[in-house]
Amino acid sequence: MKRRYFGTDGIRGEYGGAVLTDDFAARLGHAVGLWKSLGRCGAKVIMGRDTRDSGRPLTRSMAAGLSQAGCQVVDIGVLPTPAVAAYVCGVGADLGVVITASHNPAWYNGIKLFDSMGAKLSDEEEIEIENLLDGIDGVDTSGAFGGETAVDSVAVYRELLQTVLPPGSLKDRRIVVDTANGATFQTTPRTLRRFGAELICIGDGPNGQNINRGVGSEYPGELCKKVVECGADLGIAHDGDGDRLVLCDEHGKLVDGDVLLCLLALQEKRNGRLSRNTLVATHQSNMGLDRALKGDGIAVARTPVGDRYVWQRMRKGGFNLGGENSGHIIFSDANPTGDGLLAALKVLSAMVERQLPLSALSRCMKLYPRKVGALSVNEKFPLAEVSSIQEILGQLELEMRGRGRVLLRYSGTEPIIRLLVEGNEESLVGQWYRRLEDRVRAALA
């Protein structure tokens, strides 16, 4: 069954638009309370949010729905998504909720749900909640929020991070940090300073309306420029809710997300921490990743796009490292969701341990040439039912004969279709991409 509201990363949309309203949040909260009789059991639900102005009313509304269904709600305020997930596990809560639209602009918002293990819900669980939601007409949100407010809710997350590096190990490091005017504006700088780093911060003045506005993981230009200007060792950028990491090296050059996955997998294996010598990555990751890791005896297990699918594959296979090349990286021994700060500390640990700059560590793999793009669509028709698209996919697969690949998928959060063509020759990649784009545009755009 197809989900109507949940996408690849929770529910997301323009605040006050067709779906994401205060009323919807209240009804969703009530549906979640009814799900698996959580409210009847007096379940404890942890709620956090990013820095958007719409976060407060959405939190109040969803809390009202949860409370009326019988749940005990604890508001932990503005915190990164991975910190909320860690807090859920740390206090033995039954569910976690984060009000965030991640990398999207301020006029968007969204809702992410986490189970008692701090992991995102499965597709099947989200469908169960949607089915309950359909039977709820409205929820009274006129009363005051009756939940608790947690004290020092970041403590659990802080304890999780402090074991990654020895105390004072970053005292000679200068780092530029871009927190996207989002949920990490306090946690990431405080953590890095605790290890002794000298910081130059940008995107660290949230006002409710400027999250991701020209800063953060989607706009790393200023980060790269600052690294060069300040003679920094590297630059670190997050998205609005802090579950992603984008890096640039000491020369101001961005580190590709697959290169980041590669160097982390190699580092974890070098220290005997890579479970079953396997990295979990999505179909979006570059073919060069498999080739580079194979030489070191590391396998790559592939999943559909979405960090929830990465986590599910990790849990099923007993693997402890996985991620997406967008910067969602999961170290499941510490936290079962993408964690931009934890991943950054792991990279810094590799730099300290090996006494190498990030540019040297980044030479661990060679990327295959690729071309990516996106087209707007009015409706997301099942691709298997569009004969002209299936025809061009068949033609390209026959021509590639193992020299390349095509990935075509709808975005889970926006009305677009994403195109990816990859191969061992750049000229061929360009030709293949143009033919694919022309066909998709004619069929769907």
Under the CATH scheme, the architecture of the largest domain is 3-Layer(aba) Sandwich
Distance between the termini: 25 Å
**Number of β-strand runs:** 18
What's the helical proportion of residues? 25-40%
Under CATH, the topology of the largest domain can be stated as Alpha-D-Glucose-1,6-Bisphosphate, Chain A, domain 3
Could you characterize what this model shows?
The chain has 445 residues and is of the alpha/beta class. The protein has 4 domains: 6-153, Alpha-D-Glucose-1,6-Bisphosphate, subunit A, domain 3 (Alpha-D-Glucose-1,6-Bisphosphate, Chain A, domain 3, 3-Layer(aba) Sandwich), CATH 3.40.120; 171-248, 3-Layer(aba) Sandwich (Alpha-D-Glucose-1,6-Bisphosphate, Chain A, domain 3), CATH 3.40.120.10; 257-364, 3-Layer(aba) Sandwich (Alpha-D-Glucose-1,6-Bisphosphate, Chain A, domain 3), CATH 3.40.120; 370-444, 2-Layer Sandwich (TATA-Binding Protein), CATH 3.30.310. Helix content is 36%, strand content 20%. The protein has 14 helices and 18 strands. The strands form 4 sheets. A 7-stranded mixed sheet has the order 1-2-6-5-3-4-7, with helices on both faces. A 4-stranded mixed sheet has the order 9-8-10-11, with helices on both faces. Strand 3 (44-49), helix 2 (55-68) and strand 4 (72-78) form a beta-alpha-beta unit. The longest helix has 19 residues, at 426-444. The protein is globular and about 60 Å long. The two termini are 25 Å apart. The mean pLDDT is 94.
